[in-house]
Amino acid sequence: MLNLVLKEKGLSRGRVGAELGFISARLFWTLRETFPQFEFEEASRAIEALRVIKSPEEVEVMRISGRMAVAELETELAGICVGEREYEIAERGRATATRLAAEYITAQEGSSMHIEHPLNDGHQIITSNERLDMVHALASTRALTDGDVLTLDFCRIPQLYGYRIGFSRNAALRELSAREQEMYDIVNYAYDAALAVLKPGLPAEGPDLVARGILEKEGMVDSFVHRTGRGVGLEAVEGPEIAAGDTTILQPGMVVTVEPSVYYQGFAVHVEDTYLITHDGYECLTDCPREIRIIPTR
Q1: Bridge-partner residues for 3, per DSSP?
Q2: Residue 140 and which of 13, 31, 79, 292 are 20 to 30 A apart at CA?
Q3: What angle do CA 46, 121, 115 make, to 5 degrees?
Q4: What Å distances lie between residue 218 and 9, 214, 260, CA to CA?
Q5: Residue 11 lies in a domain
Q6: pLDDT digits (tens, 9 = 90+) for 222-252
Q7: Average pLDDT over residues 106-123
Q8: Do 37 and 173 fall within a single domain?
Q9: pLDDT reading at 293 higher than 90
Q10: DSSP secondary-structure letter at 109?
């Protein structure tokens, strides 16, 4: 493939930039031996800068990916029950993602399109009960019990053509206590406040400073152990960081997450969505109710 690209560009020698931190030593030496007329250099920063602004084609893929993530969530929620294991929930969502990706690719490119698999490898983040304070922990063999609260997070799962979407919701196999509902409402208030300042021309740290200030005022900031958001695309974490200290100016074409959260053993609030920065504001790519889903025990 690289040979065809170089030929198409009319390049016969010179310097080629590569993300050397993402390829194996074996692949690096294979490239050098296959293309001795080229010099391969580290270009991670240049490539990361190019990824910050998505092309119209990438935006459309990420719109579809966002709808896929929401469909995966609904599939998982529909089958959750006492006794089911976290990884079994994840496998059910993955089956839906694979089917949707295969249907789209077939419709666009025909059944003769040869691909190894319609959905890239990936493992979903699912935590429940005593595992809820394990931020970004992958789905385990833990079986659900009556009264559990769950976090269902899809940011590690590559969607259509390998693009990633930040998306997470909470569910519970019981009604929330008054204090839990209060915490849920506070985090969603912080989310709304962050969203209110999300727009082109704003420094990327702006939504984080607003959301973090609310959680600090409510005495919950110590349980908020990550940033309010980050860029997403082909990688799960891209620029800009929606975090204090990142003064990158938000621009149309950037795709970022909004996800103020709190984590405790036995209870967590992690509501996350992905937004496209537009010329006059933003577009949500993961349109889905943010209320916690209460699942009747079976």
Answers
A1: none
A2: 292
A3: 90
A4: 57, 6, 13
A5: no
A6: 999 999 999 999 988 899 999 999 999 999 9
A7: 68
A8: no
A9: yes
A10: H
Q: Tokens representing 131?
A: 């595992």
CA–CA dist 14, 18 (Å, integer)? 13
Residues 68, 42: one domain?
no
Residue 13 DSSP class: S
pLDDT at 21 over 90: no
Total domain count, the chain: 2
Rounded CA separation 57/59 (Å): 5
Domain identity same for 93 and 26: no
116 and 236 both lie in a single domain:
yes
* Residue 9 belongs to some domain of the structure: no
User: Which of these, 102, 98, 125, lies nearest to 114 by C-alpha position?
Assistant: 102
150 in the same domain as 70: yes
Q: Is residue 4 part of a domain?
A: no
Same domain, 31 and 65: no
Do 26 and 108 reside in the same domain of the chain?
no
Read off the tokens for 207.
């939504």
- Quick: pLDDT tens for 40-75: 889 888 888 888 999 999 999 999 999 999 999 999
Q: Which two tokens stand for residue 143?
A: 């079986």
CATH number of the domain that residue 248 is part of: 3.90.230.10
What span, in angstroms and rounded, lies between the C-alpha atoms of 34 and 12? 13
Q: Where are the alpha helices (DSSP H) in the chain?
A: 2-8, 25-34, 44-52, 56-79, 86-109, 178-196, 206-217
What is the DSSP secondary-structure string of 52-93? Answer: HSPPHHHHHHHHHHHHHHHHHHHHHHHH--TT-BHHHHHHHH
In a domain, 171, yes or no: yes
- Which of 52, 68, 99 corresponds to the end of one domain? 52
The least confident of 113-127, 177-191, 200-214, 224-238 is 113-127
Q: Which domain holds residue 34?
A: 16-52
pTM higher than 0.85: yes
Q: Tell me the C-alpha distance between 52 and 47, whole Å.
A: 9
